[in-house]
UniProtKB/TrEMBL annotation:
GO biological process: double-strand break repair via break-induced replication; meiotic cell cycle
Listed name of the protein: Minichromosome maintenance domain-containing protein 2
CC annotations in GO: nucleus
Record-annotated MCMDC2 N-terminal domain positions: 7-106
InterPro entries: MCM, MCMDC2_N, P-loop_NTPase
Source taxon at top rank: Eukaryota
One term of GO molecular function: ATP binding
Species assigned in the record: Xiphophorus couchianus (Monterrey platyfish)
Lineage of the organism: Eukaryota, Metazoa, Chordata, Craniata, Vertebrata
Length: 544
């Protein structure tokens, strides 16, 4: 008896120190309304296990390992406080007080973590646990339990590898060199340095543009190549860096499917497909040549609307009326198309266009960026890839390229995670260049630009570990967009090389200097294009 009184006294002291009594009084105030005629009244008590253990270890142990008993203690104390302080006249017995203990956090130990993939039965320890898993289906009536709580990592916990910080300091004089070296040294277990640099950069840019906020832009990639095997492996490796990456199989459901809830009232279960499961991450589609035409049409529709609609027939699921639900698609899509498979369409005479294989032009238009997956063409690239593959087979993990920085997969995971969480803003110079390019492109081309240049500039800025988008970031975004539009519709008055972002080899410091000089020249070419086709642009853009 003395122990119970001591624990109740500790509960009262904790509620007083943590502001729980004041919250209890605030929660009781609406109950005095005459229209409130409930039999049981529910109160939420916020509990910090660390503060509780520091104040009274016995009470902290009771809360963590005997939550039913702890709930009874808090219920008794809350009832006594309500009666003593005369907070409301509608509560007469302790059974009318329903107390729910909400934990601010749990100790970071395995005993307090429940992995749903490995432990899915109802039986378990009678203590609070933090559940980890993915929701793969929901019923039509979406109701959350009273104890549902979703936590996210504090942004301060994300850090960048010291190697990347050292590299950033070494190349601080140029806003282009850091992401160039990061892309140059990426995926060295699969491809030699210098091969597929543009694709590697675009994969990293797409990775840092993966957030779950509805207003965050997406950066979808379509890679046109004749060597789908190597690039498929490179994209699958990059998928491991995403916070949530799903590789879709052509034979499975991509968006959503319906089934009858056999354990409930016979209502509809909505099963999430690969795109919805990859929310806030990447959905890798693979080679689009393996998809049927109706599947490709569905992909095009979702990319255009960024949402999935599910029609639920009422008669089939025991309801009087039909219902249609819509779910937002908040992931980036990666896809491949084999250019060696002739599309059957007539050859176009437009300079610069690339055959998309089995992919229709309307579907290619919905992707933010279309990339030609081959920085080096011809025999040289094939020999370099073959030699690299043989070296990795004989000596796995070896990098016989002394010019490259040594970055691990964990280093890239930390870099992507940190860059993804940065909040950036467009500088006035970047806005002016992007706006001028849009104006000039509308006059120089008959097609509408499908790529969103600000998204590419924002992603490049994040990858550079900066918080303000510079004009140099906008230049990279314009070059990627122009190359993408050229592959789909042909060249325009803005004449740039096919691989404008990496116009030279980066094997040494001289290569980085030559790249900077080439990008500076391309910057001036973009400005002259803007001045020529966007009259009045010189009023807000200053030519360097």
């Amino acid at each position: 008896m003395a122990d119970i009184l001591s624990l109740k006294e500790s509960v009262l002291v904790y509620l007083d120190r943590s502001g729980g009594l004041q919250k209890l009084a605030d929660d009781c105030r609406p109950l005095n309304d005459p229209q409130q005629t409930e039999a049981v009244y529910r109160f939420r008590v916020l509990v910090n296990p660390s503060d509780l253990i520091e104040m009274d270890p016995r009470l902290g142990d009771c809360v963590l390992h005997d939550p039913l008993r702890a709930t009874g203690l808090f219920q008794s104390v809350c009832f006594l406080a309500i009666k003593t302080l005369s907070l409301t006249d509608k509560i007469h017995t302790a059974s009318q007080v329903n107390v729910s203990l909400n934990f601010t956090h749990l100790p970071p130990f395995p005993e307090y973590t429940l992995d749903l993939s490995g432990f899915h039965q109802v039986y378990g320890p009678m203590r609070p646990v933090s559940m980890e898993g993915a929701v793969i289906a929901i019923t039509r009536v979406m109701k959350y339990t009273q104890g549902a709580r979703f936590l996210s990592l504090p942004p301060g916990c994300l850090k960048v590898s010291p190697r990347f910080l050292e590299l950033s300091e070494c190349v601080a004089s140029s806003p282009w060199r850091f992401p160039a070296i990061v892309a140059h040294c990426f995926g060295l277990d699969l491809t030699p340095p210098g091969l597929y640099n543009t694709l590697k950069l675009c994969l990293l840019l797409s990775l840092v543009q993966t957030r779950t906020d509805a207003n965050d832009p997406s950066l979808d990639l379509l890679v046109v190549t004749a060597d789908t095997l190597v690039l498929d492996r490179l994209m699958a490796y990059s998928l491991s860096l995403a916070c949530r990456g799903v590789r879709h199989q052509a034979s499975t459901e991509m968006f959503a499917s319906l089934s009858r809830d056999e354990h409930g009232a016979g209502t509809a279960n909505i099963h999430a497909g690969s795109a919805l499961l990859a929310s806030g991450g990447i959905c890798m589609l693979g080679d689009l040549g393996f998809y049927r035409k109706d599947k490709l049409d569905n992909i095009q529709s979702v990319l255009e609307s960024r949402s999935v609609s599910v029609f639920i027939p009422g008669k089939k699921y025991g309801e009087e009326a039909d219902q249609q639900l819509s779910f937002p698609v908040q992931c980036n899509f990666w896809a491949l198309t084999d250019s060696s498979q002739r599309s059957g369409r007539a050859d176009s005479a437009v300079l610069g266009t690339q055959d998309m294989g089995p992919v229709q032009a309307q579907l290619a238009e919905t992707f933010g960026l279309v990339i030609q997956g081959g920085d080096r063409v011809g025999e040289r690239g094939v020999v370099a890839q073959a030699v690299h593959t043989l070296q990795q087979t004989v000596q796995p993990g070896s990098h016989p390229h002394p010019s490259c920085w040594d970055f691990s997969t964990e280093d890239y995971q930390e870099l992507v995670a940190h860059s993804r969480g940065l909040e950036v803003e467009l500088s006035p110079d970047a806005k002016k260049l992007i706006h001028g390019y849009y104006m000039a492109s509308r006059r120089a081309r008959t097609q509408t630009l499908s790529c969103k240049i600000p998204d590419g500039g924002i992603a490049h800025c994040k990858l550079c570990l900066r918080t303000k988008v510079l004009e140099e970031d906008a230049v990279i975004a314009v070059l990627l967009c122009e190359n993408s539009v050229t592959l789909k519709h042909g060249a325009s008055a803005l004449v740039i090389p096919p691989d404008a972002v990496f116009p030279c080899d980066l094997g040494d410091v001289d290569g980085l200097q030559r790249r900077d000089a080439a990008l500076d020249e391309l910057h001036q070419i973009i400005l002259r294009f803007v001045y020529t086709f966007a009259p009045g642009a010189d009023a807000y853009i200053t030519e360097e």
